[in-house]
Each structure stands twice: as structure tokens, then as C-alpha cells.
């Protein structure tokens, strides 16, 4: 399964989700490939130091480089996951023919709500965001078949 995570700038939430999902799926023996992109991302920006630190006990995302969302990424994905309802809404407007593949992270994790943007906030906010993402990813992966 190929999962594409989407946020705004591709330097905080979606790189954390990409890395956490990749590592947790590997630990569970599930055939999952992950990538992330941003709706308004530039090419090549580093993840924020806070995002790297927030997930460091599980995965190293320091080599991540931001990328904008492209049709190639969308076409390669089996599942496209936005961090917020607004991300999902933008994705649905751009790709209405892919409605069945587009969800929010909360929906995939069987929950409600959104993953708020921690950009520019404290390490504690990033840590809470990473914990939320990890919880939702763990729940989402429970529905994914093994290898």
C-alpha cells in the first residue's frame, strides 16, 4: 500500500506522519510505502528541528526535504491523507475523481478532529502533535493487511 500524507508546508505534520507510519508499519511487518507533500510547499526545505526531535525516539526524519503535491504523487498513492478537514477539502476540489482515496488522518485512525499545525510553537506542542499522529497512525495501520 502506498500512502501519501499531505499538509500545508511539508515541514512538520506530514513528514512526522510519513516517518512514523513507515517505521510502525515496518515494525508490524506491513507492506506500506509512505511519502509526503505539501499543498503550498517549496522544494527542499528541511523539517523543523522541533518535528525532528518530536519523533526522534521512533524514527529519524532529519533527511526529509519538502516537496509540493504533484499529480505523479497523487497517481502513485493508494491512500491520500490530509492532516485537517481543510486539506481534505482542497484535495477533493483538485481531485474529485479520487474521493474514495482521500481521508483525514483522524478519519483513517477512526477518530474525529484534526491535527493542528504546530509550526512556530513550542517543543511541547510538537511533542503533543507527534503523539496524536502516532496514535492515529497506529489505529489506521490496524486495518492494513500484513505483507
TrEMBL record:
Gene3D superfamilies: 3.40.50.2300. It comes from the Bacteria. SUPFAM superfamilies: Phosphotyrosine protein phosphatases I. InterPro entries: LMW_PTPase, Ptyr_pPase, Ptyr_pPase_sf, Tyr_phospatase_low_mol_wt. Keywords: Hydrolase, Protein phosphatase. Residues 1-143 form the Phosphotyrosine protein phosphatase I domain. Belongs to the low molecular weight phosphotyrosine protein phosphatase family. This is Low molecular weight protein arginine phosphatase. It comes from Veillonella absiana.
Amino acid at each position: 500500500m502506498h500512502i501519501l500524507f499531505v499538509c500545508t508546508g511539508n515541514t512538520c505534520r506530514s513528514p512526522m506522519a510519513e516517518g512514523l507510519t513507515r517505521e510502525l508499519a515496518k515494525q508490524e511487518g506491513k507492506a506500506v510505502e509512505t511519502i509526503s507533500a505539501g499543498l503550498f510547499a517549496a522544494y527542499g526545505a528541511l523539517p523543523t528541528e522541533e518535528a525532528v526531535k518530536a519523533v526522534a525516539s521512533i524514527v529519524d526524519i532529519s533527511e526529509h526535504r519538502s516537496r509540493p503535491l504533484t499529480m505523479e504523487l497523487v497517481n502513485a498513492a493508494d491512500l491520500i491523507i490530509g492532516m485537517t478537514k481543510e486539506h481534505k477539502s482542497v484535495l477533493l476540489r483538485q481531485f474529485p475523481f479520487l474521493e474514495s482515496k482521500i481521508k483525514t488522518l483522524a478519519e483513517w485512525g477512526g477518530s474525529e478532529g484534526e491535527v493542528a499545525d504546530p509550526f512556530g510553537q513550542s517543543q511541547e506542542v510538537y511533542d503533543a502533535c507527534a503523539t496524536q499522529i502516532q496514535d492515529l497512525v497506529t489505529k489506521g495501520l490496524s486495518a492494513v493487511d500484513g505483507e
